[in-house]
Each structure stands twice: as C-alpha cells, then as structure tokens.
Write a structure and sequence with these properties.
- 2 copies of one chain form a homodimer.
- By secondary structure, chain A is α/β, with parallel strands linked by helices.
- The first copy, chain A, folds into 3 domains: 150 residues, Alpha-Beta Complex (Aspartate Aminotransferase, domain 1), CATH 3.90.1150.10; 29 residues, no CATH class; 200 residues, Aspartate Aminotransferase, domain 2 (3-Layer(aba) Sandwich), CATH 3.40.640.10.
- In chain A, 43% of the residues lie in helices and 12% in strands.
- In chain A, the strands form 2 sheets. In chain A, strands 2-1-3-4-5-6 form a 6-stranded mixed sheet, sandwiched between helices. In chain A, strands 7-8-10-9 form a 4-stranded antiparallel sheet.
- In chain A, β1, α6 and β2 form a beta-alpha-beta unit.
- The N and C termini of chain A lie far apart (63 Å).
- Chains A and B meet through α1, α2, α3, α4 and α5 of A and α1, α2, α3, α4 and α6 of B.
Chain lengths: 442, 442
C-alpha cells in the first residue's frame, strides 16, 4: 500500500469508524462467543502473498466484531469508562504517523509500581545513611507497604513485583469504605514495634468497587511524619477534579509524594494515557537511572530536561501527549467539565430510579459516575440477576463485593450515554429482577 | 466534534499524514530546538473554551514539528528502526475507535522484567519445595541473574526493580561480542561456591551496540541443567527470523524458557507492539495472578482462556494484535521477507562503502541491518565526527562503545530508505570526516 492508496483507504476507514460509532448501540454490547472462537476463523499461518485490502476489511465484521466488547456503547456500564473522542482519534492517527518514540506514562498500575519502587529505593537510602553497614537485603526484608482493602488489585501486585510486604488496611461500611487515619496509625505502630519498616502507603481517591475516597487530610500528615511515601491513585476520579465542585475531594493532596490519574478513563483521551506527578523527581530518577552510551545526549544534565525513561521501566514510550493536547484544545475546559457533570448527573438519575424502587437498595454513596446497588436479599439472587442482565447482552455491568455483599456496579461510561439509555437500562434491570425474584424468592 | 465533522477532519488528517510521509525527507531529521522550547509556544493552562480545529492543525507545524525527531525519515540511522506502515496505521485508527481494553504486550523491556519476575517466583517455589522452613527473603537475597555486558540497559534495570543481584558477563571482540558457554559456566560455578543461587540468564540475539548473537546452543543446555531460566531478548533481530536464511541465528531456541521480539522494530507494525512466548504459561500466571471480583468471568478456569493481565503488571492493555493482523495480511510473508532483505542489503551496501575507504574500519560483523564503523584513530576524532554529523541534521546516528572504542552505529531504519539515501549519507559522512581529520590530525 503506497501513500496514494493510503489516502483512499484512510478516508474509507474514517467513514467506517464514524459509521461504527454512530451505530454502536445497535450492536450487542457484550460478545456472544466462546474463548477460542477466533481460531477457526483465521488461518494457522500468516499469508504467503499479500491479500487485498477489501478482504481484510470484510473480515472486520466477520472475524473481529463478534468478539468485541463495545466499551463505547451507551449500554456499557462495566468497570469504569475508557475514553473515546474524535479529536483524540485524530491525534492518535497523527501520532502513529509521526511514530516517534516519545515520552509519557503507561497506566495507573504502572504508576503505583513506579511510586513503590521509588519509595523502596528512598527508604533503603535513608536507612543506609544512618546505618551504612546494614545489608540492603536485611532492610528490604523488613519493609512494609499499606493500601486499603478497597484498593485496586494492581497495588497488591506491585508489592509482589517489588518483593515487599503489602498489608491491606480494613475499611468499614460505616466509614464509607474509606481508610481512616486512626487505623493506619495503629497498624504503623504495631508494625514498628515488631521491627518492620513502614515505607509506602497507596491511598485511593475513588476506589474501583464503590468510588470511595480515603481520608488523605488525616492520612497525609501521618505519612509525612513517619517518612512514609504517600502515593495517591485517583485513576478514575482524578478527571473530575477539573470541576471546582469536586475539587474538595482532592483536599490533602499537599501531603502526597506522588499522584496519578488516567485521562484515558474519564477525560476523553483515548486509551492509553495515564499521568503521574511526583513531589521530588530525583526520587524517581534514583530508582531507575541507566546510562548507556547509545542513549546519551547533550541535554541530559541541563536540568531543563527530564528523561521520563529514567523513571519507569519501559525504555520506549508512545507520543501520547499529542492526544491530550488535541482533546484539551477541542473541548476546552468547559466542554470537559460539562462532560464530567453530565455523567455525574446521569448517575444521580440512575440512583433516584433505584431509590424509588423498594425492592432495591443503594450500597454506597454516589459521589461521581458510579452507582453501587443491589436487590434487598441474598447474594445468590443478586448474582443471578447480574448473570441474567449480562446474558441479555443489551447492557453490561460488573459486580463488586462490599462488606461481604454481592453488589452490582452501574458505571456511566460511554461518551454518548443519554438519559434515555439510563431509563432503558433501568427498565431492563427491573424486568429481569421481577423474573429472578419469582424464581428465587428470598 | 461530532461524527459528521470527524468524517471531514479525519479525511483531512489522512491527507496530512500522507503528505507528511511523502515529503518527510525534506525535513531536518533531527530537531534544532532546546529542551523547553515548547513552553513559550503553548499557554500555561488548557483553554477555557474550545478552540477551532483549524487552529489546532495550524499549530502542528508551528508547535509540534520543530521538536520532532523524524524516525521515519530515510536519513534516520539511529538506534534501531521503529516500524511504520500504512496498513498498521489503518488498523491503529480502527483500534482507537473500538477502544476496547484488550490484551497484548508492552515492550521488550517489560518482557525482560516479566520473565525475570516469573523466574524469581519459580526459583523461590523450587527451593521452598525442598526446604519449606527457609525464609523467602533469605532465598531472594541469594539469587543471582546474568546477562551479557552487551545486553540492553533495561536488563540491568529489571534486576533493580526485582531487587535481585544482576551480573554482567564479559564479552570479547575476538568472540564477536557474544557470550560464550564457558564464561557462563565458570561464573555459575563460582557463584554457587559462594552460596549464591543462579536463577536467570537473559541471552540477547542481536545486541543493541553491535547486533551480536549470544551462543544459545551452548548456553541453553547449561541453563537447562542448572534450572536457570533462559530468556531470549531478540527485540530487533527477531523480525529477521521470518527469512529462512536468517533462521539459523535462532538455533538453540528449544532451550529457552521465554522469548521476546518487537514487531514494532522491524516488522512494519507501528509502535508499540512487542510479543513474548513462554514455555510454561503457569510460570507466568503464578507470578502475577490477582482475582478481584470485578475481574472475574465465566471463562477464567476453562483452560482455553489465557488472561494476559495475569502475566504482566499493567492491568489494561491496548488492542495491538489488530495492527499485526492488518500488516501480515496486507504484506504477506513474502512482502515482509522482501522488506527485511532489502534492509540487510542496504546495510551491506553501506558496509562495502566503508570498507572501500582506507580511513575507516568496520568494528563488528554486519549480520543484519546494523553497521558499526569508525575512523581509524582516536575516540576523540570519532566523537567529533559524530557530533558534526548530527549537528548537520541531515542524517541521524547514535554511537556505541565496543572494547573501549567509540563507534558509530549506522542502522538502516526507515521503510523508505533506498540506495540513493545510503550513498548520500556516505558522501556526507566522508565529507565531514575530511573536515574533522584536517582539524584534528590523529
């Protein structure tokens, strides 16, 4: 394919994309295929001779689409949103064409790990400064990190990767599933008494299960006093902080050592795009710096230059900032704020539908675009309801567990979700609930 | 921007991209700006109101392009190639539109780390099986990993992240900078005698400095016998193995526990796209598995399903396989083989130009698309030559160090590089060499 053909095919692809997105709600949101369905649809080996572009395009519907979960369907309410916008797509096209190896971040999971590694390296340095003879392996074997029992599973994984102890801090429904200062303080004291070295706390603003906010105004001063690195994971909720009315949720940020949120979740920047701030960049550089000759250049020591690959583990990173730039400019702050507010409003609308129905209950405060709800009754009846909902393939939701209860998560995700989709989703849910309750009386 | 405007703007963007790529060689390959140049060109804050798309597009040339290194210019000979092809771009457009959170791999650096973590976890399990009382921290503090002194810097970084000892195996010019079986065997014996536990060896096929190939037919059996995980990093060279004539370079692969190469380097699949094979997938899953309720689904235990996020540290991954699929189909194996062969031929052409000039020498065997060369003489004269070459901004090269010598790396990178570009590059290099040698007689 030469540039001339690309001009033609690229324009067809633009139309194909616009068609796909304009008609996405006519597709079943969740695929009805078994793992491995693809195997029989594609050849065992790559083709010997080139195929025609027409054949490839024909196979998009035949081969690919049947297996796709349509994350941008207005019937998608699972996990959290993954962003999608026309300006971001345009920027991504250009970014692909420039195809330079740029600088930016991976995902929130990576940010959590990067912060943990930097914290580990800082803790080891601090202890060696006062006790230079102590073996490093002895120090790391005593390190202990903390996060909420509501934190994303990638926090626990970060602990496994870094080879350090990671303790979960219990939360309570009565505290809205937020980590309390007193609980952290007690755990730190117990661990120090047992000879351990507390060094890292991952706070979450907007947890995955229920969008809970850890009390960082209480937790931050404790961490600072104990020289514990406080990382804030605001992967989802972070986007909402562009609205003044949600900004108070960020109070306490001044105590953080690092902060991360994902514009690719809720700020209209296509996946993937995750941003991280760090209080003291030398802490990051210290944990990752490598200096081979083939990566040396004139600006390395100038101070104006920050080589992000010194501060994460991937050597090569895509030019992701381009799509943020397109999105910020094409929507403007107001457009982005409107977008966030509309999602929150739609969540509130869903919440009031749930509250108006005596058979259901709300399981956690609705702060942003996530509604946690359930049928009053057993976990079994709720599991059956969710299964029924997802098998219908009209809307898609995932569950979570809160205080031992099986809870349904309704996250407003798609850019195109409107009030009518919310009402239709609720009609479907109540209809299936009716069926389930007749079959499984509590 | 609605779908209707996206149809219009998308088509303009397709033309902009085609124009950019068709005329890329008219641009200076390397930017002539200082770090921070962008700060004065962009506002301090995101715009309050949306801007027009025209304004954004105008700024591509004004703001972005002056800072871009044009990796796809036929005058780019630095690092290794980063792939770029029209089918891959089309697929990436579609992938952005579908925007689902898919499954695939990050980069070779990540593969190295993932393999190291899996190896660490396997080693700990094996030792605990025979000595269940031994503290895990005692085991990890004794672990030792190996790689060539020619291995990519990310291998060393992987050791830092995993918190394990990483030893560099010395290589010699006389052995073509390849790790020899005998050297590894001796280091293992010494380390075991000192109470250490060898557990991981990262072999490289096609090193970054000189495209050297470690002798895996010798090294593999040693690793297998010692229960050392052998990971093979073939980030660049891996693409060439689609040609039968380069397949012998892969001999010994049967001893590997894991293998990685980057289609985004040399297989026409746009960045990023890196693939990894592992002998026993349970070794990976064991190192990373997490099971929160919101990620549970019906197929998890079916055996037909492999959740790749159980085996790497990012939770969310882009739908990268789509662009491999487009590229394999649109080029066919033959087209891809032709592409690899052409680059190797161009490298051989450059090599013969160098060899024909008595003032220069070739510093390492030319096996694939990389030519390592230098002026006979001091490191200083070669450093000056390289600086002069890159300051000219017509072509771009990076250096490496081989046996203490400062060496210039000429890597055939761009999809559009032709013989005339190679000859023009050589003319430029010899002309600058002339100048440098007059100023700095050796």
């Amino acid at each position: 394919m030469d540039a001339a053909e690309f001009r033609r095919r690229g324009k067809e692809m633009v139309d194909l994309i616009a068609d796909y997105l304009e008609n996405i709600e006519q597709r079943p949101v969740y695929p009805d295929v078994e793992p491995g369905y693809l195997r029989s649809l594609i050849p065992e080996e790559a083709p010997e001779e080139p195929e025609t572009y027409e054949d490839v395009v024909k196979d998009i519907e035949r081969v690919i689409m049947p297996g796709v979960t349509h994350w941008h369907s207005p019937y998608f309410y699972a996990y959290f949103p993954t962003a999608n916008s026309f300006p971001a797509m345009l920027a991504d096209m250009l970014s692909g064409a420039i195809g330079c190896i740029g600088f930016s971040w991976g995902t929130a999971s990576e940010a959590t790990l990067v912060a943990l590694l930097a914290a580990r390296s800082r803790a080891v340095r601090m202890i060696l400064a006062s006790d230079p003879q102590r073996p490093e392996t002895d120090i790391t074997s005593k390190l202990v990190a903390y996060s909420s029992d509501q934190a994303h599973c990638s926090v626990e994984r970060a602990g496994m990767i870094a080879g350090v102890r990671m303790k979960k801090i219990p939360t309570e429904q009565s505290d809205k599933y937020a980590v309390q200062g007193e609980t952290l303080r007690r755990m730190i004291q117990e661990d120090k008494a047992a000879g351990l070295i507390p060094f890292y706390f991952c706070a979450t603003l907007g947890t995955t299960p229920s969008c809970a906010f850890d009390h960082i105004t209480e937790l931050g001063p404790i961490c600072n006093a104990e020289k514990i690195w406080m990382h804030i994971d605001a992967a989802y909720a972070g986007s909402s902080f562009i609205c003044p009315e949600f900004r108070p949720l960020l109070n306490g940020i001044e105590f953080a050592d690092s902060f991360n949120f994902n514009p690719h979740k809720w700020l209209l920047v296509n996946f993937d795009c995750s941003t991280m701030w760090v209080r003291k960049r030398s802490d990051l550089i210290g944990a990752f710096k490598m200096d081979p000759l083939y990566l040396k250049h004139d600006h390395q020591e100038s101070g104006r230059y920050f080589d992000i690959t010194f501060s994460c583990y991937s050597q090569s990173i895509r030019f992701r900032s381009l799509k943020m730039w397109f999105v910020f400019r094409m929507y403007g702050l107001k457009g982005l704020q409107d977008y966030i507010r509309k999602h929150v409003e739609l969540a509130k609308e869903f919440e009031s539908l749930v509250r108006a129905d005596q058979r259901f209950e709300i399981s956690a405060d609705v702060v942003l675009g996530l509604v946690c709800f359930r049928l009053k009754g057993s976990n079994e009846v709720n599991e059956t309801l969710l299964k029924r909902i997802n098998n219908g393939r009209k809307i898609h939701l995932v569950p979570c567990q809160l205080s031992g209860q099986f809870v349904l998560r309704f996250a407003v995700c798609a850019r195109t979700t409107e009030s009518r989709h919310i009402r239709e989703a609720w009609r479907l849910i109540t209809q299936l609930a009716e069926e389930v309750m007749q079959e499984l009386p509590n």
